[in-house]
Amino acid sequence: MANAAAVQESVQAPVSVSEADGIVQITLASPPANALSIAMMEALKGALDRARDDDAVRVIVLRSEGKVFCAGHDLKELTAHRADADRGRAFFEKTMLLCSGLMQTIVRHPKPVIAEVSGIATAAGCQLVASCDLAVASETARFATPGVNIGLFCSTPMVALSRNVSRKHAMEMLLTGEMVDAGRAHAFGLVNRVVPQDALNQTVMNFAQTIASKSPLTLKIGKEAFYAQAEMELSQAYDYTVRVMVENMLARDAEEGIGAFIEKRAPEWKGK
């Protein structure tokens, strides 16, 4: 029986996925650390890709099991490859590229992604939160980019962090490696709301349900435009968003939504 249990544990999926009413919940299910091992990142990427291709899905929620949302990369997995002939270089590159690709998958995903943060989010786990479109944290959640404490600056987490909070706050986290409580994370702009633990999931689901009620086409257009214009010079951003607005106005959902507003009725979205 012990062998059977070991086999079952070894094949247990690192994430679990559930869907209801257009909202997919992807749960990091490898406590206690929910570390971003190769298996975890591949499973997350796969779940996100399936949600992208499912027309019934409107919103995605990333959550976790246990007391840690995500502790970042699996340091034991990385360290094991120092015995490789190249001292781990190929495996380190594979890990960092896979992680960077995962974060970009979230940002470029056509559907909004909400982080439901219960517990600790550190290093690439903090990066995961920062990469999501929205984040709601429990009052006991804490955040850090502590790589500097172990001789490994959080350079890739820095990309997402510095695009969410001010430079001074980002550098404070990166240079000190200290934990930031949920209240300060909210003040920094890393999370949208901080709520009691027992209200966390319901708050996230309220967010998700509100967003899921909108036109899926409009959400896709808006999310893509938001991240694109953020990287542009001001006049270029306006030129780009003028084109986006014109194309959006020509969409059937915009015609339906404006018509429904004028006629004082609920719109019927077609996603076109």
UniProtKB/TrEMBL annotation:
Signal peptide, first to last residue: none
The protein's role, per its UniProt record: May play a role in fatty acid biosynthesis and insulin sensitivity.
Alphabetized Pfam families for the sequence: ECH_1
Name of this chain's protein: Enoyl-CoA hydratase domain-containing protein 3, mitochondrial
Source domain of life: Bacteria
Higher taxonomy: Bacteria, Pseudomonadati, Pseudomonadota, Alphaproteobacteria, Hyphomicrobiales
Source species of the chain: Nitratireductor aquimarinus
Keywords from the named record: Fatty acid metabolism, Lipid metabolism, Lyase, Transit peptide
Family of the protein in this entry: Belongs to the enoyl-CoA hydratase/isomerase family.
Keyword Lyase: yes
MF annotations from Gene Ontology: enoyl-CoA hydratase activity
